[in-house]
Design a protein that fits this description.
The complex is a heterodimer of chains A (about 700) and B (about 130).
Chain A (H helix, E strand, L loop, with lengths): L10 H28 L4 H21 L2 H19 L8 H20 L9 H8 L20 H4 L4 H12 L3 E7 L3 H5 L4 H11 E10 L10 E9 L3 H8 L7 E4 L9 H5 L2 H12 L7 H30 L5 H24 L1 E3 H4 L3 H12 L3 E6 L4 E3 H22 L3 H6 L6 E10 L3 E8 L6 H8 L7 H8 L20 H11 L3 E7 L3 E9 L4 E9 L2 E6 L5 E4 L6 E2 L11 E6 L2 E7 H4 L13 E7 L2 E7 L1 E9 L13 E6 L5 E5 L1 H11 L14
Parallel strand pairs in A: 6-8, 13-22, 17-19
Antiparallel strand pairs in A: 1-3, 1-4, 2-3, 5-7, 8-9, 9-11, 10-11, 12-13, 12-20, 14-18, 15-16, 16-17, 18-19, 21-22
Chain B lengths: L1 E6 L3 H11 L5 E6 L2 H10 L4 E4 L8 H9 L9 E5 L4 H10 L3 E4 L4 H15 L3
Helix pairs in contact in B: 1-5, 2-3
The chains are: A alpha+beta (about 700), B alpha/beta (about 130).
Chain lengths: ~700, ~130
């Protein structure tokens, strides 16, 4: 009856879960680093990090990934010792632990890529072993008297008591609530899991204790759970959110109303104090992104039916009905829908600074592992990004950061020889592009990309332009080193970055590199994905939409004023002309020709020019007729067969006919790349 | 039907344990992802055997064993601890709290099946 079960079959599942635990471990280590700098207790984070590594170790052992077991085991030993002293870590622990996490991550990546993980670096194991913990245990916080059920109080350890004390100092209330499970509640989906999840959304759960009791009518299972939490919400709000009886909630500790102002508080200037209090007292609700997605999905349907309503109103109007009131209402509704869309999208926005939170920690590890000296400068202001975009873009940013440190920046000695300062500079910054896009730039002042060497390794011609350089860099499997380096590893390359930015997000990726001076990667991504304001127009007897945000202006064109320029080509790239506009020259392209469409039989009226501006150069695209302005739901064209340059996706304008969304930015970039535009360039200083 | 409760915060680990135990006919499985969930299920439902991890986020396996053994109805329920923590201290502590068996990870499919079968057979379960 012995069966053969191959636990190796669980490798893929293991890798997925390992990623989760590693993310958690990174977050805990970051919190530890921040907490230590602020002199706050980090006992809970140390315990959580210990748990994450313990789980990784156990899983790795089951699927037989010994190098990860070895690393996780030693990290676990350090953390267990720290846990015993109340979370006190030996000096220098954070860096070594970070290296440990990186080493595990590299091995998980290797397994993802189907290659056997490397043996653990002996230097790392030695460094972990060397972290001797001779720190004395942290003095126990004075056992405060909490107004609490003794059955729960007995289960609260010093870490939990510390957490309660520090939460109360920050102005939160410590509460105790009771949940009594039953079979009936379980059938209704109410269990300790759901209660914990709901309470966790509006409070910081410190401890949950099972309490055994004699079975009674009100507690048929002979079990209740005592939950201890810190919160800023009222008892009534908690009871409503969690679905428990408000009477079962008791306050076990809170800041005394007449508590004397601490000296630290008194030192703060008044406006700062206000600010701080404002931030703390904001009631936060955590919402799963899927719920927001669901709301957006419903809104999309509403916007489509709103468009159909407009069509119907227009039809009524054409039959002679007085539709003025109806039109006014419809316009009002459009505005409300736009506001609603704005509100929902804002809910999904996360500050870019928060997205980049982990970068300093990663760079810190890279400094150690590469021995390079560098200064990291993150300047992204208050920019925000849709969470869905942020999640996709983050791994790409990390790849670029690793690449910059690993391949871009030189060693201190090399830099001195090259006449540079010993310390390299790595800069992450961003600028808004219109109101729908964000351009992130990752710049290093390192050695720049050696095109000749790159071409030699790739077995390709030397890239002459930045576009061909990027294409070469993004070749799948291209490694710029013979040996996979310790930090960048192998298999995760620029092709992944390109895929995320260009294919997943519909953005643009660019590179600028100068030998000896450094490299800049620019990632242009949409702030949100899904709905945009768009102009609709006709061109070559077809209907198109173009995102409003990409259009600089719309001009009326008088064919007579367009000078046919010297750059006119016989190719199908569109007739090129030059239009003088406010004293500046502007390229003019016929969109129908650019897209290879038959020209409209007879374009009535004057053609319009949609002007886009790209890096200071303006390009006007000639279209036959403007139709209007409306919100469109962008559906990306995932099919590689219809992957046409300049087509950003498709949308439904409300009549069921698919309409293509053109990307005039991409088309003008193509045009500008194809033609020497020196005669069209305007001196930069005149543009500002 | 003989019912097993598999308690581990790692879903992959629970799946692996279930894969190993599937070889025993007539055994059905319920997952619990935390110590608290395990206690709730044990209080509301009936199980024939529990496979329990020690290291979990909310309350650990030892606490679960202590709680279970404090309940008259669950005093003799077979509990097998499966843990990465193989030190003698954990083993002594778990057995003292009332665990029936103690196994360390990594385990082989055969070893866990043998241990669980032995517990069930001793109970006279099918």
């Amino acid at each position: 009856m012995i069966s053969r079960v191959d636990l190796g079959e669980f490798l893929q599942a293991f890798l997925g879960e390992a990623d989760e635990h590693l993310t958690h471990a990174n977050a805990q280590l970051l919190a530890i680093d921040a907490g230590l700098k602020r002199g706050e207790p980090v006992g809970r984070q140390v315990r959580e990090l210990f748990r994450a590594l313990h789980t990784i170790k156990g899983l790795s052992a089951m699927v037989g990934v010994d190098p990860i077991v070895a690393i996780a085991h030693r990290m676990e030993t350090v953390l267990r010792a720290a846990d015993r002293t109340g979370g006190r870590l030996p000096n220098g622990s954070v860096d070594v632990l970070l290296q440990g996490i990186r080493a595990i991550e590299q091995r998980v990546r290797a397994l993802h890529a189907g290659t056997p993980p490397a043996a653990p670096p002996q230097a790392l194991l030695d460094a972990l072993d060397a972290l001797e913990n001779d720190a004395p245990p942290i003095a126990r916080a004075q056992a405060e008297s909490l107004e609490l059920d003794p059955a729960i109080a007995a289960k609260l350890g010093s870490l939990e008591r510390d957490a309660i004390a520090s939460g109360v100092t920050q102005g939160k209330r410590a509460i105790s609530a009771r949940f009594t499970p039953s079979a009936a509640l379980a059938r209704a989906g109410i269990s300790i899991n759901s209660v914990r999840e709901k309470l966790g959304a509006i409070a910081d759960i410190v401890k949950v204790v099972p309490i055994a009791m004699t079975p009674t009518a009100s507690a048929p299972a002979g079990l209740a759970f005592g939950l201890v939490a810190l919160t800023s919400s009222t008892n009534a709000a908690i009871a409503a959110a969690v679905g428990i009886d408000a009477a079962s909630i008791t306050v076990i500790a809170e800041a005394a109303a007449s508590a004397p102002v601490t000296s630290e508080m008194a030192l703060l200037p008044p406006e700062d104090a206000d600010d701080d209090a404002g931030v703390r007292r904001v009631d936060m609700v955590r919402v799963e992104v899927v719920k927001l997605d669901d709301a957006l999905e419903r809104l999309s349907a509403l916007i489509v039916s709103r468009s159909r309503l407009s069509i119907e109103i227009a039809r009524l109007g054409s039959l002679g009905t007085d539709t003025r009131n109806l039109l006014a209402l419809a316009r009002e509704q459009s505005r409300q829908l736009r506001d609603l869309r704005g509100s929902i999208l804002r809910l999904r926005m996360v500050p870019l600074t928060e997205v980049l939170d982990r970068v300093p920690l990663i760079v810190r590890g890279l400094r150690r592992s590469t021995g390079k000296s560098l200064r990291l400068d993150i300047d992204v202001g208050h920019a925000e990004l849709d969470k869905a975009v942020a999640e996709r873009i983050f791994p790409a940013i990390i790849h670029l950061v690793r690449n910059a440190v690993d391949h871009g920046l030189e060693s201190p000695a090399e830099r001195v020889l090259a006449g540079k300062s010993e310390e390299g500079a790595l800069r992450i910054e961003c600028t808004a592009v219109g109101n729908a896009q964000l351009e992130l730039r990752i710049t290093d002042d390192g050695r720049g990309i050696d095109r000749v060497e790159l071409a030699r390794r790739a077995g390709a011609p030397i890239p002459e332009t930045e576009a061909t350089l990027l294409a070469l860099l993004c070749r799948p499997g291209l490694s710029t080193r013979d040996q996979a380096s310790d930090t960048s590893g192998r298999g995760m390359g620029m092709d992944i970055v390109r895929r995320v930015v260009v294919e997943d997000l519909g953005g643009q990726l660019a590179v600028r590199s100068e030998i000896g001076h450094g490299t800049t990667f620019s990632l242009r991504v949409p702030l949100t994905i899904s709905i945009v304001d768009a102009f609709t127009f006709e061109c070559g007897a077809q209907r198109f939409a173009v995102p409003l945000s990409t259009i600089d202006e719309i001009v009326e064109l008088d064919v007579a004023t367009i000078a046919t320029g010297p750059v006119r080509t016989a190719s199908s790239a569109g007739t090129v002309g030059v239009l003088a506009r406010r004293g500046q020259a502007m390229a003019v392209l016929r969109l129908d020709e650019v897209l290879g469409l038959p020209a409209a039989a007879s374009a009535s009226g004057r053609p319009k020019g949609l002007v886009v501006r790209l890096d200071g150069d303006s390009v006007a695209f000639v279209v036959d007729r403007m139709l209007g302005q409306q919100e469109i739901v962008v559906r990306s064209l995932a099919d590689p067969l219809v992957d046409v340059a300049g087509i950003a996706g498709a949308t439904d304008l409300g009549d069921g006919r698919p309409t293509l969304i053109v990307d005039l930015m991409a088309l003008s970039a193509l045009h500008l790349a194809q033609h020497a535009t020196a005669h069209l360039s305007i001196p930069k200083e005149r543009l500002s | 039907m003989t019912r097993a409760l598999v308690v581990d915060d790692s879903k992959v680990m629970r799946d692996m344990i279930v894969a190993c135990l599937r070889a025993r006919p007539g055994l059905s499985f319920t997952h619990a992802g935390s110590g608290l969930e395990a206690i709730e299920r044990l209080s509301l439902e009936t199980f024939d055997v529990v496979v329990l991890d020690l290291n979990m986020p909310d309350i650990g396996g030892i606490e679960v064993v202590e709680f279970v053994r404090g309940q008259d109805r669950l005093k003799t329920l077979p509990i097998i601890i499966v843990t990465t923590r193989g030190d003698d201290g954990s083993r002594t502590q778990a057995l003292a709290a009332g665990a029936s068996r103690f196994m360390t990870k990594p385990f082989t499919p055969e070893s866990i099946l043998t241990e669980v079968s032995a517990l069930l057979d001793a109970q006279g379960a099918a």
